[in-house]
Amino acid sequence: MLWQRPPKGEGGALVIDPSSGALVYSTPRTTDLWPQAGAALDRSTRVPPLPSVIVPLCDRENLILVRRNGDLARVGFMDERPVAATRRAVIEQVFAESLTDGVLAIAGRRSDGVGSRPVVALLDPRSLATRTEFEPISSSDVKWILTTPIGEVFLGTRTAIERWAVSAEGVLAPTLVALTPESTESLAPVLLGASLLTIDPEGRPTLTPVFEGEQRALALGRLEDSQLVRSIEPLPEGLLIQTEDRLVLFSQAGERIGADSCYRDAQVALAVPVEGELLKVYSVQSLPDGGRVRTDLSCIVERLSPAKGLRNLGRAFEVPGGETSVSRALAINGWLLLSHSQGTIAVAIPKRSTAGGERENSGPGTP
User: Fold this and answer.
1) Rounded to whole angstroms, how far apart are CA atoms 36 and 65?
2) Helix (H) or strand (E) holding 341
């Protein structure tokens, strides 16, 4: 699934066959999905919900489009002939959304005739039918929402972290986990063992115990290493956390089980999971060349093993670059896609073999 949002005009999703590159489906225009949709106005805040803003969610079975005014659209991701099903104004303003473990969760506000109040709705991602609704016990707006396979719902509101779980009577019951406004700004909350990992606005990770204990900062490595998180990537072997200069791997129990070799002269480093390995991509800094600065930036790609604590797997390979650093990377079907402001480079990933001892293709990646 490719989501594109042009500088002008409406965004949309494209479903592409990875084996052939053929376009399977593209979502209709928003005016076709939700005809004559107007911008509702919250009388309590006088802030329009920006109905043109759409967030795409995909779980390899459902492609869900969530609009900030509560409009929803669903397409079967693997359907032979996809047809969009829609639902209008489930709630009036959407601030947070998630699609995990067969649950579509949206959180925002709904008017009651006098004002508006925060609300959370859990829906069936196939039919878009509402399963249940509830209001946060902290009575403040939800900034993020997270669901788990056992039916738990975690909320980060403006003032607290809440946990909702099914009680013995079979209904969702709330528990206040922590009063912590800093953690509610997290962009990537995730469960790590019996704690909730959140990232504050400054990029610092915090562990909040779900049941008992005090909040504590998550130490990512040595004191001289950066403690600011750039991204979080779940892997089969654990949770990969990328800082400004290191990659650190944690087990699901929250134990630090590996780290990459440090390369402090890199301008940017990206982590790309691929078939039991991890590709670490970084751009080499510009070097003086005859009294001037070279603008040709090369990428160095290292192969790491998450199963072995991010140990290097043989030698790295180099990819000729351009005048700007790579900002995004993706691996698919044996190809490494490297994107920067001037375009995208496709590189064939050199193959490795272990027959008769580890052996690898030592040549550079081939654009």
Assistant:
1) 17
2) none
User: What residue spans of the chain are helical by DSSP H?
Assistant: 30-33
The count of other CB atoms within 10 Å of the CB of residue 215 is 17
Q: Are residues 67 and 11 in contact, defined by beta-carbon separation less than 8 angstroms?
A: no
d(CA 239, CA 319): 28
Cβ atoms within 10 Å of 132's Cβ, excluding its own? 12
Distance separating alpha carbons of residues 275 and 331, to the nearest angstrom: 10
DSSP per-residue codes, 202-246: TS-EEEEESSSS--EE---S-TTS---EEEEEEETTEEEEEESS-
Backbone φ, ψ for residue 134 (5° rounding): -160, 165
Q: What is the pLDDT of residues 158-173, one digit of tens each?
A: 888 899 998 878 788 8
Q: Is the dihedral of CA 129, 131, 126, 41 positive or negative?
A: positive
- Residues 6 or more apart from 171 whose CB is under 8 A from it? none
pTM of structure:
0.76
In 3D space, the residue among 64, 54, 66 whose CA is nearest the CA of residue 5 turns out to be 54
- Asked whether the beta carbons of 144 and 125 are under 8 A apart, the reply is no
Amino acid letter for position 243:
T
CB 10 within 8 A of CB 29: yes
Look up residue 153 and give its two tokens.
């719902």
User: Residue 88 has which token pair?
Assistant: 């209008």
User: 197-207, pLDDT tens digit by residue?
Assistant: 888 777 778 88
